[in-house]
Amino acid sequence: MNDVGAVASKAHVSSELTYDEIVRSGPGTLCGRYLRSVWQPVYHSADILPGQAKPLRIMGEGFTVYRGSSGTPHLVARVCPHRGLQLSAGFVEGDAIRCFYHGWKFESSGQCVEQPAEESRFAAKICIKSYPVREYIGLIFAYLGEGDPPEFPRYPEFENFEGLLEVDSYLRECNFFQNLENALDQSHIGFVHGSGAASFGTVLGKSLKAEESDWGLTYSYTRDDGESFVLQFGMPNIANLATLPTDPEIGFQESLHWWIPVDDESHVQFSIHRVPITGDAAKRIADRRAARRSEIDLPHQQVADDILRGRINIAEVDVKRCDIVRLQDDVAQIGQKRIADRSLEHRGVGDVGLVAGRRIWRRDLLAFAQGKPHKQWNRPASLRASVWGMNPAPGENDAHAKPVIIDMRPYIEVKMQMEAFGAPIL
Ligand code: FES
Ligand SMILES: [Fe+2]
After folding, report:
1. Which pLDDT does position 206 carry in this prediction?
2. CB under 6 Å to ligand 1: residues?
3. 156-421 adopts what CATH topology?
């Protein structure tokens, strides 16, 4: 993490933070500045072709993402500074973007270089905001904070291996922090996902542990037979975990998840899954993933809304047509309200993970608000996720090996996300 003290614009005098300060991420908010102080995934590589420009709403703020004809992605301000037209309606020219209305043209640095109706010297005085962007492991990452970006974080075991790298994401219509807390709450699994492969029965709270690590938290659950599930949570909004099969030919998969606010009441979870399987088996898995993308045609977001409004019961949902695990988590998380009211809670020992997560978030946010140095989180190779003794140790990874990237998002999910990213900023 960079020197965040330098970007904290005002000192926070209170030693307590409200939940609003922790979970609301719009421009200028404490949480928003904190999340913007690190690189975040903001878009799928697959969703923007050379020559395309799209509107992008992240943390309640509008941007324009476009891909130059060279293939390089760029991220700039949402609107043209001439008369405020949305730039994504314009034209990509090389690595520049030209406004639809009167043709002002901006380089990817944000510098205006042409204004067809104006004297030439006016353009030199106009510059829009542009943001550092990196394309990596199937995703487009951006640094949305002030000043120079921190070092770009890499995940070598997801980058250099033979097999499939599945790229995934979903839109959830509640605050991002509810999903973050849900990852640190494995006692929900036996109930919410009781019928699924991900379930591991009733979890006794006393068998859950959350210990601070160099990266964030090591959160684990140990069964009576001594085998453990170990999740590594990375500050501020990443989880690394190994999960049980989601395909008959996958023994386990290792994943990274990021929770990125679209606005305060919705977020996208970006995920990558490392599946170190090659050859015919990899092809069969990829084919099954491809078939499932179109088979799912009921948006889990809309079904969750139907359930929460009492129109249908979850038992009536056709699991062939809807992603049931996402639906289950939708109901659990959105059912707490779009922004949960945590003053109503009665927490127990089963909540040890989310309590620990809130504690380190509070500590970091407070230091950030007061302009003080805070912990420099990093991810040593020794911090590994595992599930019941299966640990996808990446030790022998070949630095030249590259996985085949496959997009596993249902098409209906892609549509829902595009609509959320492209919604107007009011
Ligand atoms: S509004 Fe963009 S050029 Fe006029
Ligand atoms: Fe869940």
Report:
1. 82
2. 80, 82-83, 85, 99, 101-104
3. Naphthalene 1,2-dioxygenase Alpha Subunit; Chain A, domain 1 (3.90.380)
Which residue has the least CA distance to atom 3 on ligand 1? 102
Closest atom of ligand 1 relative to the 85 alpha carbon: 1
Ligand 2: distance of its center to the CA of 226 in Å?
23
pLDDT < 70 positions in the chain: 1-15, 195-203, 391-397
Q: CATH number of the domain at 41-142, please? A: 2.102.10.10
- Domain map (residue ranges) of the chain: 41-142, 156-421
Q: How far apart are CA 45 and CA 75, in angstroms?
A: 13
Residue nearest to atom 4 of ligand 1 (CA): 102
Residues 330-363: tens digit of each pLDDT: 999 999 999 999 999 999 999 999 999 999 999 9
Residue whose CA lies nearest to ligand 1 atom number 1: 83
Whether 41-142 shares its CATH topology with 156-421 is answered no
